[in-house]
Amino acid sequence: MNRIITLVTIFVFTFPTFAWNNHAGITYLILKDHWKTKQTPKVKVESLKTFLTKEKTTIQESLDKSEEWALKRLPHLTKTDESLKFSKTTKEKDLVVSFYRALRVNPNHKAALYIQSVPKRGGSKLPLDQLTTLNEKGKLVNETFLSLQEDQTIGADEVLVSATDEPDYDLDLHLFEDNEREVGKIYGFGSQPFGNPAVEYSSQAPFHMGFFYEPGIIFTLAGFLKRTYPEYRIHQFTELSNLAFRTGHPYWGYRFAGWALHYIQDLTQPYHSSVLPRVSAAKQIGVQLVSIVGYQTPKDNMISFVSGRHTLIEEYQYYLIKNLIETKNWNHPVASSITDFSKDNLVTWSGMDSIRENVCREAYLAGEPTDEQLENLEIPKYEKLYEANHPIHKILGTLLHNTSKHTRAYLDALKTN
């Protein structure tokens, strides 16, 4: 049994953890016409410290509500230690870090006042070291971030576009006991269930993936796959968004909503809602058994092929979305799949139940056909963008249509007043 668990662990260790690489670009396209029947809401920029100072008597109440829900939904989740709870008596200089610790997120996260410039435009650029603590900045070096000032007025769409990308900047890094950080020892999440705890970016994986529809035998042999936390984050940030709107802080209402949307959008990616599309439990066990007797090729091939297709679709999506926005190619089939919605295409957000019943189920069911279609393309890795009629765009368009659909449903259900 331990050998089989090792197999599944290796697969998940090998998987990229980015999901959609370009949340800001996707959200920009979604919002391009979202408020077309009315004026885009305008909000006044507000620092996190200001928000916490004004609403510190109600913050913990919001977090307690999320935790009460999550403890019932996620049996593996432990209670927040009392010493981490946010207190209305917290000193002003400690408010932000205390808030992060009460959320059980990276206490070093930098809630800078900024927008991601999508599309690129002029302004005062924000250095990356004021936005993220990541050592490896990855594709962030390709992006432009502009500084904002408190009390400046901007569009709600600009807040959402930027915020949907933000959780990837370090919000969920180093939170487990084996990540060699002080908070990992007090947050109560235990050892990292999957992903490589020695790799910086991988430490966030259990917060951005959700496996709910795997065969029972997989969960029996690899119960650690149940230890995922995106629903916890979505509930936390949705409740905080509701609080912010209710108490007159629309900037943080939209920013927290954008944070919640990040995890929802991640779960629309089939490789984040399915461990090994098209690899049956029997096959997983079979390749491990033959590897035990020294025949490693089937297992090595399986790891290479699945992780390769996962990486391909994410890499291709990143560069394609950037190109569509830069060239304003709104008639491209992928752009149209994101922006063109009739009333018949829309769905209703049914609260937290939507995540498993609609978002994750749809992504899981899309896993097998998506993986097979990507394999049939015989494209080993991203190298270039293809002509509009290339079949990869039909695959990507289908997936991003679902991302757009669920993003719109969540936004339509926002309690903005």
Structure described in brief:
51% of the residues lie in helices and 3% in strands. It has helices at 2-14, 23-31, 48-55, 59-73, 95-103, 156-163, 182-186, 205-208, 216-221, 230-246, 250-267, 270-273, 281-292, 297-327, 333-339, 353-377, 391-412, and strands at 42-44, 114-116, 145-147, 153-155.
Structure description:
Mean pLDDT is about 90; it is low at about 1-5 and about 10-15. The protein is mainly alpha-helical and about 425 residues long. The termini are far apart. It has helices spanning about 1-15, 25-30, 50-55, 60-75, 95-105, 155-165, 180-185, 205-210, 215-220, 230-245, 250-265, 270-275, 280-290, 295-325, 335-340, 355-375, 390-410; strands at about 40-45, 115, 145, 155. It has 17 helices and four strands. The protein has a domain at about 1-35 and about 55-75 and about 155-165 and about 190-410: P1 Nuclease. The strands form two sheets. The chain has a two-stranded antiparallel sheet. A two-stranded antiparallel sheet has the order 2-3. Helices cover about 50% and strands about 5% of the residues. α4 (about 60-75) packs antiparallel against α10. It comes from Leptospira bourretii. InterPro entries: PLipase_C/P1_nuclease_dom_sf. One of its GO terms (molecular function) is hydrolase activity, acting on ester bonds. This is Phospholipase.
